[in-house]
Write a structure and sequence with these properties.
Shape: globular
Largest sheet: 5 strands, mixed
Oligomer: single chain
Number of helices: 17
Distance between the termini: 44 Å
Strand content: 5-15%
Mean pLDDT: 89
Radius of gyration: 21 Å
Structural class: alpha+beta
Strand order of the largest sheet: 1-2-8-5-3
Order of helices and strands: HHHEEHEHHHEHHHHHHHHEEEEHHEEEE
């Protein structure tokens, strides 16, 4: 994901930041600081203000354009020729961690094709019994306590066990994966300080060393897993370099748990905050499929995506020059009133236009079928096992801008 020239330095001085935000506000009537405490806690009121006042918004705090209308974002995500992904952000250039997300065809096509078979709807459906078993085991273990952190007990372990088994690495290393994933996921954030840059680099180095050991084993003893398939492709010599192999494995391990973890956590919180919808889902479990799609729309696990304009282009009446960065505010598109009726209302019966939480075009999320299936299974298991679930404490959000999720979600399960 390229967020363009977002500031990768520690943070601009507050007086400078305030001046730049004041400049934005003077030009358009609204200012957008995506890393502010307000935006992390609840960005949707600000998204609405941007969409009303300046839907193609020139950001002065960071040198980019922020898009908040569904139609503009849909266009940008579909048009990879005019809006390229193949420019790493300043953060990524500092960490050195770039994946297929920052490529365009033909490299993107080549890399994606190597792993796509593992994520087809048919392949994912074959995983259903195993995912159901994992979910049931996790909720059974969690049921031993009347109060639990849903993120630590269910939302994180479920997807990381699944992706670890798909890759062919021991799920017993889950605690190490969590630390590595938490640190590496910072790589797509807009602003990192020096300490965070070191954390990303260190986690990438440790995970690379870990994967090197697994790869060595697979060269001599291939298994029916993704690592073995990618090792075979690398050994053919013209499909995959060793560096691409490592970066693809890092991407799959991190992306394979981040989106689903946040979907489960954000989804449970949204249902608890909208008890009428929670009760409706309890009474109509057949709505689980549409409920997961609505939860993805309502509070998207991925809030922002970025592209680089490859040519001068007009968008929403504004002129964007070649080389400028465009930020697709997916969370705003998912609440565009021109597309969704009563967009700020959670409605698990909602139908019509689809959300943009998995993107569009050639970069549409490879793991979307898996994430949706895991979400349906996890939410169903939680609701069956804990029919009286309720919040036990104020939720704690992760201080991240691109990935929107919870660090802790303490719930009470006793009647």
């Amino acid at each position: 994901m390229s967020i363009g020239s977002w500031l990768a330095q520690r943070v601009v001085q507050p007086v400078v930041a305030n001046a730049l935000l004041g400049w934005e506000r003077h030009e358009s009537g609204v200012a957008y600081h995506p890393g502010s405490a307000e935006a992390i806690a609840d960005p949707y009121p600000l998204y609405g203000e941007l969409r009303r006042k300046d839907p193609v918004h020139r950001m002065r705090l960071i040198d980019a354009w922020a898009l908040t209308r569904y139609r503009d974002i849909d266009r940008v995500l579909r048009d990879h020729q005019t809006f390229s992904s193949a420019v790493a952000s300043r953060v990524q250039r500092r960490t050195g961690l770039v994946s297929m997300l920052e490529t365009d065809p033909p490299d993107h096509t080549r890399l994606r094709s190597l792993v796509s078979q593992a994520f087809t709807p048919r392949s994912i459906e074959r995983l259903r019994p195993r995912v159901e078993r994992i979910a049931e085991d996790l909720v059974e273990a969690a049921a031993n306590s009347d109060r639990l952190d849903l993120m630590a007990s269910i939302a994180y372990p479920l997807p990381v066990i699944v992706i670890a088994e798909m890759l062919g690495v021991p799920s017993q290393d889950m605690a190490r994966f969590e630390k590595w994933s938490n640190d590496i996921s910072l790589n797509i954030e807009p602003i990192l300080d020096d300490e965070e840059i070191v954390r990303v680099r260190s986690a990438a180095e440790e995970l690379t060393e870990y994967f090197e050991g697994i790869i060595m084993l697979r060269r001599s003893d291939p298994k029916d897993d993704i690592i073995s398939a990618l090792v075979a492709a690398e050994e053919e010599g013209d499909k995959l370099t060793h560096e691409e192999l490592i970066r693809t494995l890092i991407l799959l391990l991190v992306a394979g748990n981040e989106t689903t973890r946040n979907l489960i956590g954000n989804g449970v919180l949204a249902l608890l905050s909208n008890p009428d919808q929670l009760e409706l889902l309890r009474e109509n479990p057949g709505l689980m499929g549409s409920a997961v799609k609505e939860l993805l729309r309502y509070d998207s696990p991925v809030q922002l995506d970025g592209r680089t304009a490859t040519a001068d282009v007009e968008l929403g009446g504004r002129s964007i020059s070649a080389g400028q960065y465009v930020i697709a505010v997916i969370g705003a598109a998912n609440r565009d009133p021109d597309v969704f009726e009563n967009p700020d209302r959670l409605d698990i019966r909602r139908s019509g236009a689809g959300h943009l939480s998995f993107g569009r075009g050639i970069h549409y999320c490879l793991g979307a079928p898996l994430a949706e299936m895991e979400g349906r299974i996890a939410l169903g298991a939680v609701m069956r096992k804990f029919p009286k679930i309720r919040l036990a404490a104020e939720p704690v959000r992760r201080r991240q801008t691109v990935l929107r999720g919870l660090k802790h979600l303490w719930i009470e399960t006793a009647a």
